[in-house]
Design brief:
The chain folds into two domains: 252 residues, Aminopeptidase; 127 residues, Alpha-Beta Plaits (2-Layer Sandwich). 29% of the residues lie in helices and 27% in strands. It is built from ten helices and 20 strands.
Length: 387
């Protein structure tokens, strides 16, 4: 795996932090240069003009033309979450120890880029692909993907007959969860901590109210998908979820806070609409306000539907011929939604495992899993049947 590890090392060395949008242009140019060095046509589509911060949003498109009737899109991303602290190894230097390669993005999702480009390299060399292949290495996936895969699908009109999202676990994933983010704001009355009787501490009101809101998770859990959950999860079928994930209150020790802001993450099963889920949340929120006698507001900041591809779709059958596995759905979301919204079937497959510390310290990828994804892509294309 000399070529693959060299490329992965170069990619990991670039801190493509999705919050800072750092090194995006450098990473895109690197991928483009590597693709062109392999003999592929490659171009960069930059969504900078649509970015509120004015920073570049380069997305790389690499084409393998096989003279086929159909085109398979392979979707990957090069942005990563912040490294954070507590690493035992340098996050932006690829460290290979035995069968593991450590580094931020080594798994999510720079290994996907490496595996896909390596498979395309072999397909071109051996001229065995029965489908045209279009690799997308995009930005901003970790922050919603609107200026990444969304831009390519909506503005650049990137189209194909099927999409393989190489950003998942080593399972056959045919669906992804929908996402709703929002804020809960609890009001009190700010005042001097020396005179608490003249104020209304928003924290005092917020704590029991937020505990009540946490119980909404039990209602979400009753929403079960017709699609199974991945292996090893606590439920057989994918289920709805609700979690309070952030809390902010107070300015100084001697000031009683007049406001508490909590943020939440609500997950929808793939076939569930965002409108119905939000209405259900609003109904519970209203009743919880009455029960707890609080002044509170609910704000929805993000809503992103899930998606699924029918398990009996021919594209799924094509994949099962080279990777025999029962279809399931993922608990997270991914960029496949931008293409399924346009009628293009999508499935996901990747190098992820539970123990690989994705989004955590000392993230790593198994070298064997890079090979597995590479060979699966190769065999899928070499044995393609029109969908």
């Amino acid at each position: 795996m000399n070529w693959e590890l060299k490329l992965l090392s170069k990619l990991v060395a670039l801190d493509t932090d999705s919050t800072k949008r750092s090194n995006y242009s450098e990473c895109a140019e690197l991928i483009k240069d590597e693709a062109e060095g392999c003999g592929f046509a490659a171009r960069i589509c930059d969504a900078k003009r649509l970015a509120e911060d004015g920073k570049p949003r380069p997305n790389v498109v690499v084409d393998l033309e096989a003279g086929a009737r159909q085109t398979l899109i392979i979707a990957t991303h090069y942005d990563v979450v912040p490294a954070g602290g507590g690493w035992r190894r340098q996050p932006f230097k690829l460290t290979v120890e035995g069968e593991r390669a450590y580094g931020r993005g080594a798994n999510d999702d720079k290994s996907g880029i490496v595996a896909a480009l390596s498979a395309m390299r072999d397909l071109r060399r051996l001229a065995e692909s029965k489908v045209n292949v279009r690799l997308l290495a995009t930005c901003d996936e970790e922050t919603g993907g609107k200026l990444g895969a969304g831009y390519l699908a909506e503005r650049e009109k990137i189209r194909g007959n099927a999409v393989l999202v190489v950003d998942a676990s080593r399972d056959l994933i045919v669906g992804a969860s929908g996402i709703v983010f929002g804020k809960i704001i609890v009001k009190g009355k700010q005042g001097h901590a020396g005179y608490p009787h003249r104020a209304k501490n928003a924290i005092t009101y917020a704590l029991p109210f937020l505990q009540d809101m946490e119980k909404f998770a039990r209602i979400r859990e009753k929403h079960l998908s017709f699609l199974k959950a991945p292996r090893g999860e606590p439920k057989e079928h994918l289920w709805g979820r609700f979690s309070i994930t952030m809390l902010r209150a107070g300015e100084k020790e001697n000031i009683i806070p007049g406001e508490v802001e909590a943020r939440f993450d609500m997950r929808l099963v793939p076939e569930e609409g965002t409108r119905g889920a939000i209405d259900e949340l609003k109904d519970y929120f209203g009743r919880a306000k009455i029960r707890n006698q609080v002044d509170a507001r609910l704000l929805i900041t993000t809503k992103q539907p899930g998606y699924y591809t029918r398990p009996d779709h021919k594209f799924v059958g094509n994949f099962q011929k080279v990777f025999p596995e029962e279809p399931s759905a993922m608990l997270g979301g991914n960029d496949g939604r931008f293409f399924t919204a346009r009628g293009i079937p999508a499935i996901s497959f990747g190098t992820g495992r539970k123990e690989c510390n994705v989004h955590g310290k000392d993230e790593f990828v198994y070298l064997d899993d890079i090979e597995l994804v590479k060979h699966t892509i190769y065999n899928l294309c070499a044995n393609w049947e029109d969908v």
